Input
Amino acid sequence: MRIVVLGAGMVGSAIAEDLAQEQGMSVVVVDRSQKVLEKVKAKAAVEGIQANLQDKGIISSIVADSDLVISAVPGFIGFHTLQGVIAAGKDVVDISFFSEEPFLLDELAKSQEVTAVVDCGVAPGLCNIIAGHVFDLLDQTDQYVCYVGGLPLLRQWPFEYKAVFSPLDVLEEYIRPARFVENSKEVVRPALSEIELIDFPEVGTLEAFNTDGLRTLRTTLDIPFMREKTLRYPGHANVVRIFRESGFLSTKPIEVDGQKIKPISVTSKLLFDQWRLKEDEADFTVMQIVMEGQREGKRLRYTYYLLDRYDEETRTTSMARTTGYTCSIVARQIMSGHFKQKGICPPEFIGRVQGCYENLLDEYRKRDIRLIEKIVEHGKGSKE
Amino acid sequence: MRIVVLGAGMVGSAIAEDLAQEQGMSVVVVDRSQKVLEKVKAKAAVEGIQANLQDKGIISSIVADSDLVISAVPGFIGFHTLQGVIAAGKDVVDISFFSEEPFLLDELAKSQEVTAVVDCGVAPGLCNIIAGHVFDLLDQTDQYVCYVGGLPLLRQWPFEYKAVFSPLDVLEEYIRPARFVENSKEVVRPALSEIELIDFPEVGTLEAFNTDGLRTLRTTLDIPFMREKTLRYPGHANVVRIFRESGFLSTKPIEVDGQKIKPISVTSKLLFDQWRLKEDEADFTVMQIVMEGQREGKRLRYTYYLLDRYDEETRTTSMARTTGYTCSIVARQIMSGHFKQKGICPPEFIGRVQGCYENLLDEYRKRDIRLIEKIVEHGKGSKE
Output
């Protein structure tokens, strides 16, 4: 089997390394930067192709002789890249987290008889798979609540945060209103609102606040109450709110010293270095999902808890592990024929296919990713 | 007597109004803006001249037939304006708070036989007068510590601060290292450092932190320990530190979207409206000075406490009252011949002239400015 991985950033390279360990798997990595390619090639038996994926017609030629494509490109070229891969008739797993509506490509994917899994990381990604899995276990699902965050181990004043993406992407999450579902209706809350403090095992107290993270889940599953909140060290949201409310995240140009400039561009530039996860800097990922509903007259609560840490041995960040391995495991499920639905498939579709979730857990275990599942029946006195 | 007031901003207009109430005093106000001039003329019997003081040769012709000049221009043209007035041979009181070294004009002022009082507001200004006054009362002064701040009555998240000057001037105070005197030697501390909480009567808890506010006092009075700290509502300094430490107060241009821009220019622009004291917004001024030393073998502590509020009747800010009235009272002391020292005179020189301090207090009282003085002898069991 031949796999083409588009983009060799932190996550793309983790995916390539993971897939290259498989017998009979030939992995080609494509990136704009030769330096980045050399780094991946030093760690894993992969082929490297230097190319700018924004060049016209390049995607179809690059993916031509592949059995499956992984798109790990930056979000702003994600949609265009996915469209190119689907048009070339290749199955694809996407973790570019582009902001466009993925179902706009559904018709194209179906006509090309292509399986195109989007948002296939940890959140979105793993949380969608869990949502789909539990949704099918229950006769009726009443609630889905997800708390998730990727954090640096070292807390550094004043932001106590490092981004594995560009600060601009993170800042945009802090501006965009958060869309949730309440009583089966969409409700909109400001980003960074409803800050609450929550204790997590082995982690301590974090703060959770509203962000627009539900994505496809808002429309693909019929659950009357759905919410996702982002986790950070306590205090982070308030510091960002100070910047936002003072106009520093504004996208409206202002005139400064005779030049027109977007405040958010200045802010993003200044925060870039401070927010960058440094080489070999340890991070961790924490995610808690609570789903409630009924099965055969019983009220059940499913709780999932993921705590994953930086891998010192392979020097792989937890963000790359949880995002990348979810993607590479799903890629295998497609290649093995385990998941074969055609069209645009958000990961909740995978969770609804018998055995896919269980296989994911098995593969996680091999990679030392711990996901704890707890099922409690209401009124049975069982304590969590 | 004919007085020319250069600059009709918040403070300049308060000075003009105060002087115009005096019998036999003719007041001319000069400003670039006709609108600003009309506003002053509506409130007081003054003459208005519209002029740009940066025009070559204009200062000498404007001050030609005056007995005394007040310079209440913006700081960045303060030094140049003062130089012009001294060159024209006119006594002058300056509250432009320019950043240049005033004694550079000392020789010129002496050769012109001109009295040029600089920094003649509240701090610098009143605090210097007190310092000079107490310095002469004591045989030996050991310590001078001043806490001072001008604050809005209304606390508004996140800065809880309003500036009566341009935000850029305030931000520069938050960058410039603070120079103090310890053991008769200059020590330098970062601005915004050593934040402490202090309770003030009728005000509550404020925070005090280091800023570079001693100005001429560092060199004119031989006191081995001297410090000035700025007062704000608790939390302000930390918010500003977040901006400063993240590079938002940097004067070094960065490249953003292909343009070179100074971060501090963007920050100043964004904060301008948030930090502007709104029309009829109430403010207050609080200042506490503690001086210690010996006289005739006794250890004495002098404490001064000023709390001044916005005047609702005349709609005059406390900042304009305390700064402007100190200036207009000192102007009277010069015109009456009470203070006649030639050359550049920081206000501590006025405090050292018999009767000037007492006259200032009398005039303050008429304007309802309350300065509380307390003298305590050490070891006498007297509690403050």
In short: Chain A touches chain B through 25 residues (CB under 8 Å).
